[in-house]
């Protein structure tokens, strides 16, 4: 039974010499955090459905991770990758501050400052950190551990499908990261260009 529960992550134990009890403890914490994230995902989807958020890409993002919040507990797997996915939300508080200050007049500097912070956190936490977790999960498929032979074919198919859904979620983060990087570079270019302009002399 225990082998079935953590079968998809046995390669992590073998590759990094983790104790099985420690791996199970990490797994249990990952599932608990995933349950919390499930509630948050339902909240985010509700916000989109009532029209407070716009964009089909945002809907796809919420749909992907809402489905994962149900699928991962269902198969009792991907606890480590789920934890990496949760780390993406570290950029959310800065985004919320941007939205707050953007709605207020005279707070453009604060909005731009939190916007820069959000961009940095987004790039680190989403395409990079989440990408690292996705790469680590790929070890299972590139170099399956001996325990993988004890996993049923139906479960293996389900695990593969979930890994693909995670990958689709990461691809969307990369697409967003490209747009955020371009916007950040434009702002920096405008800021540097503006500082180089000489003040005009006053004439009578």
Topology overview:
Blueprint: H1 2-5, H2 10-16, H3 20-49, H4 56-75, H5 79-86, H6 92-102, H7 108-137, H8 139-142, H9 153-196
Task: Please describe the structure with a list of short key phrases separated by commas or semicolons.
single chain, 204 residues, mainly alpha, 0% strand, elongated, disordered N terminus
Please explain how this structure is put together.
This protein has 204 residues and is mostly helical. It has 9 helices and no strands. α6 (92-102) packs antiparallel against α7. It is elongated and about 65 Å long. The N and C termini lie far apart (88 Å).
Summarize this structure briefly.
77% of the residues lie in helices and 0% in strands.
- The total count of strands amounts to 0
Distance between the termini: 88 Å
**In terms of per-residue confidence, which ranges show pLDDT below 50 for 5 or more consecutive residues?**
1-8, 10-16
Number of helices: 9
| Global Rg | 22 Å
Beta-strand residue percentage:
under 5%
Shape: elongated
Find the structural class using helix and strand composition. Answer: mainly alpha
Largest sheet: none
Helix-strand string = HHHHHHHHH
């Amino acid at each position: 039974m225990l082998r079935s529960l953590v079968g998809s992550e046995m390669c992590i134990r073998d590759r990094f010499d983790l104790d099985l009890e420690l791996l199970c403890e990490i797994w249990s914490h990952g599932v608990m955090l995933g349950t919390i994230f499930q509630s948050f995902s339902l909240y985010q989807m509700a916000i989109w459905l009532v029209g407070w958020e716009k964009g089909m890409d945002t809907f796809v993002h919420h749909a992907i991770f809402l489905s994962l919040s149900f699928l991962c507990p269902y198969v009792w797997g991907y606890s480590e990758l789920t934890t990496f996915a949760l780390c993406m939300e570290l950029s959310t508080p800065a985004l919320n501050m941007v939205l707050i200050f953007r709605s207020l007049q005279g707070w453009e500097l604060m909005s731009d400052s939190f916007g820069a912070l959000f961009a940095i956190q987004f790039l680190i936490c989403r395409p990079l950190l989440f990408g690292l977790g996705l790469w680590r999960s790929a070890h299972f498929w590139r170099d399956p551990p001996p325990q993988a032979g004890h996993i049923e074919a139906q479960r293996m198919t389900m695990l593969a499908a979930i890994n693909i859904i995670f990958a689709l979620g990461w691809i969307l983060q990369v697409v967003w990261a490209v747009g955020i990087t371009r916007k950040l570079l434009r702002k920096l270019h405008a800021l540097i260009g503006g500082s180089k302009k000489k003040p005009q002399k006053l004439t009578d």
